[in-house]
Design brief:
Length: 288
């Protein structure tokens, strides 16, 4: 069977990402392939499942009779793909029936029998990290915040990432968030988005997060540095208000599963992601 015709741009992208070619899966024994499967479940049950199939350094191009799917409880979801290619962009979104630990997800690569199917790669959902903040959730630039959670000895990994979703917000006397009035020339500071990449952290029940690196991740970005500082220096028409940046801390707990024996190598992991928010007083930036 001939390899499917792939647009030049997509072919170049795939070759850069995997430093290899696109393999026509009809010519590949399942046992020679590698699979990376993972699911990520949020508090509301929103689930994102990913699948990547690789052979000899190239992504796998599914044949017409092949199906790659994920199964959760009594539901099945087929992975979206472009002309059959299963790569980093192959994902499916759905609502899980449960976010309780022990929920099983099964990835299935159906290839028409003949001993080539790999239909039983399974993983169990770990417990979700139940997050809380020690003390106040509002701190000043230069201070740190302590976040704690219940430890799960059966889990394999824990990752932490932070997202700044806006700067310049204030609080009224009742503690309610409000946004400052902006001048005509101002850009709404709520549109600021800056992510600190996820890093592995010990699943030991507590972590201290310093505020400075989070804010510097915004103000050190070339385009946003002037933008953020100018907003904090000039654009607020209520200079007496204390200004904060809102930070979302995402904790992702993972647990490994078992690949189908017909797959040569790879990983399968289930994650539970939970988010807790806190606020950093950034008035000090107005003096810079």
């Amino acid at each position: 069977m001939d390899i499917k015709i792939i647009p030049v741009l997509l072919t170049l992208l795939m070759s850069q990402m995997f430093s290899g070619c696109i393999e026509d899966s009809i010519d590949v024994a399942t046992g020679a392939g590698s699979a990376d499967f993972w699911v990520d479940v949020t508090e509301g049950g929103e689930t994102e499942a990913h699948a990547v199939l690789i052979n000899r350094g190239g992504v796998v191009d599914l044949a017409d009779n092949e199906i790659l799917s994920v199964h959760a409880f009594h539901h099945s979801y087929i992975f979206n793909n472009y002309l059959g290619i299963i790569n980093l962009f192959s994902k499916v979104f759905f609502i899980s029936d449960s976010t309780e630990a022990g929920m099983e997800y099964r990835f299935s690569w159906t290839r028409g029998g003949n001993g080539l199917d790999a239909e039983n790669s399974t993983v169990l959902l770990p417990s979700a990290p139940a997050l809380s903040i020690v003390g106040d959730n509002k701190i000043t630039l230069g201070e740190s915040i302590v976040i704690q959670w219940l430890v799960d000895p059966s889990a394999d990994t824990m990752k932490l990432g932070t997202r700044i979703s806006g700067c310049g917000i204030g609080f009224d006397v009742d503690g309610n968030i409000f946004y400052p009035e902006l001048t005509e020339e101002s850009i709404d500071p709520r549109s600021i988005r800056s992510n600190v990449p996820m890093l592995g952290v010990p699943d030991n029940g507590q972590i201290t997060i310093a505020s400075d690196p989070i804010i510097r991740a915004v103000v050190d970005i070339d385009d946003e540095a002037i933008y953020v500082k100018n907003i904090l220096k000039v654009e607020f028409v209520e200079p007496s208000i204390t200004h904060y940046c809102k930070v979302d801390a995402d904790f992702k707990r993972g647990q490994a599963g078992t690949l189908d024996p017909n797959l040569h190598s790879g990983t399968i992991t289930a994650y539970q992601t939970r988010t807790i928010e806190f606020y950093i007083n950034v008035d000090a930036l107005k003096l810079q």
